[in-house]
Sequence to fold (559 residues):
Amino acid sequence: MSLLFKGRNQGAQRIKVSKLQKLFMFFSDNLRQAVSSLGELTRAPFASLMTIAVLGLSITLPAALYVLVKNLDRVSSDWQQASEVSVFLKENIAQQDIEQLIKRLKTWPEIKRLEYIPADKALDEFTQTSGFGDALQYLESNPLPNVILVYPTSRHAQPNSARDLLDRLLREREVELGKLDIEWLERLHAIVAIAKELVTLIAVLLFVSVILTVGNTIRLNIYNKRDEILVMKLVGATDGFIQRPFMYTGFWYGLLGGIMAWITVALILWWMGSSIDRVINLYNQSFQLRGLDFPILISMLAISVGLGLLGSYLSVKRYVAQIEPK
Amino acid sequence: MIKFDDVSKTYPGGQQALRRVSFHVAPGELVFLTGHSGAGKSTLLKLISIMERPTVGNVYINGHNLNEITRKDIAYIRRDIGMIFQNHQLLMEKNVFDNVALPLIIEGYTRKQIEKRVDAALHRVGLLRKKRNLPMMLSGGEQQRVGIARAIVNNPPILLADEPTGNLDPALSMEIMSIFEDYNQAGGSVFIATHDLGLIARMKYRTLTLKQGQMITDGLTQNWQEDGHEPVI
Ligand SMILES: Nc1ncnc2c1ncn2[C@@H]1O[C@H](COP(=O)(O)OP(=O)(O)OP(=O)(O)O)[C@@H](O)[C@H]1O
Ligand SMILES: [Mg+2]
Fold:
């Protein structure tokens, strides 16, 4: 007799497939299904391209915004290092006390540099530059206080640490008033923070729409393959086996969409790069626009693939199980 | 192997297709199932292949009570049942070879084993020359034989056939039956639903007869002929 009915003279005994062979076949099956799923995409190129484009563009927008916000963040953190604290000293303080204070302040780790502006000198400057010179000569005494300009180290230049520094300065006996010149900076920080939240929100909304789009596309794929799925179930395919090609389709959507997003963001940055540089360099000479570095690229692809997989997973879980032979 | 224990099936809508059916098919038996159109033959096969569930009673396949299995078990139990359908159930976009290979791919056979077994199965049904054809390019009888090749390719312990000779001429019918007999002699159980009383009479095997969902006879066709009776249906 042929090989067909061999090896089962006493009742049912099917050909055994060893564990190792099963494992090997699992991987070779996966590879084959991955490749054939990619092939499937090219069978309906227009529909595939649309889905990939939706995915790509939905990731492009948050990614581009993310890069811009991140650069804005860097700019603002560069600026904040220039912030200074003006310390106004009390009247009637002896010169030695002032010198003592300056000496003490110089030992503080938060402070990078000090500049002492005595009241006389301030008045002289004011007289010369203000145009009120004559009028000022009639003053009985100098109305200006002695001032120390305190430049914090970069570690202590953030708004919060700078505020701590100010508090500490105010606790000095000789100090009357202090002024932190960072309100505009705080405003900038607040704007950047809002922008970050907005980018996150936009990203989340777009990601959800990507999941729905991919899920819907996969759902249509599943319905188109309904007859095939029925037959596969009849000959003993598990849901997992049937689901796998669709999961690969989702994977490819994600990967190709991610690559598309990456190229688009790179183009956008290249397109806008020179004008952004020009604006930024008005304020900060050393600034270089930072584009898509490797970690961002990898996270874009990971997010994109993850969304593709999630979308197809949701669809596949629901709809493959629904198709049952009758 | 196959055991029905007081099984009734009522379809949603109220049509009672099977009434209190009990029987047992042992490993290595070949059994016919006959009865008029609408008697419940296909329904009975669908209960075995888990395409329908009994309304009352228990169905056992290879010792598994089908009322007590999980979703995932269904797939594994179906791998033990080669099914041949009235309407063939072939994948129209895949060629003959790929159609027949499907059960082996699902079970994780290697490419080489698949080639060997598919060729053997196609050779057995006389379609080896057409293995690269699409089902569309085959006659009804040839499509039926592709379905048979797919059912026997992984040598399952049970073979179910619903009207396997429905579209075939008598000579081809006998050829198909000889495949079932080979398979049966190698130890497999075969369960064949058919209208074809002539075929049953020639073959001399145990035959179950359904009438309006009830099992009315269970015995050898040989006895009918010795008594000079046609089966009562
Ligand atoms: N899905 C269904 N829903 C409702 N009723 C059904 C369904 N399938 C079959 N029936 C009914 O159940 C009864 C048995 O049908 P079944 O298909 O089992 O008969 P059969 O013996 O296979 O007939 P045939 O020889 O014509 O194939 C029939 O009266 C049929 O109308
Ligand atoms: Mg029928």
User: Anything to note?
Assistant: Residues 34-77+188-322 of chain A form one domain.
